[in-house]
Amino acid sequence: MADEQSVGAGRDNVGVAEHRYVGQWWLPGAVDRRVGGVLQLDDPGKIHLELTDELHEGKSVPVIHGEANGRRITLFDVIPANGGSMHFGGLANTITEHASVAVCLVGEHFESARSRLRAVVPGRLGAAIVVG
């Protein structure tokens, strides 16, 4: 784990190896509507979420919560990537969603802590911070 380190854009940023979080993801207030997925943090600053079902219907959302690898995770400014949703036909309709994430906080769930977040990561996109 990369405790007390961050992954993100910027030359003053502490670089860490790639991290992969496999878990469950949901919109705040909709914890009963969880979908599986993988969050990939790449150095420097690429944060990508791939979901195994529709969660945000290919639309941008301000916050997604998750639990993965035994950690609470909050994603801010989640934007569809690679066309958003992909549908595969056949006997069973399979859907995956792909999204880029501006900021990832590992360790806690935040509903809308953008003002606190700006103090930690001012104006930086593609940043992940381990907070707990």
Structural notes for this entry:
With 132 residues, the chain is mainly beta. It is built from 1 helix and 8 strands; from the N terminus they run βββββββαβ. It has one helix spanning 114-120, and strands at 6-7, 19-26, 35-42, 46-51, 61-68, 71-88, 94-106, 127-130. It is globular, with a radius of gyration of 14 Å.
The rounded Rg comes to 14 Å
Arithmetic mean pLDDT:
74
Task: Give the helix level as a range of percent.
Answer: under 10%
Uncertain runs are 1-16
Shape descriptor reads globular
Sequence of strands across the biggest β-sheet: 2-3-4-7-6-5
How are helices and strands ordered from N to C? EEEEEEEHE
Largest sheet: 6 strands, antiparallel, barrel
State the helix count.
1
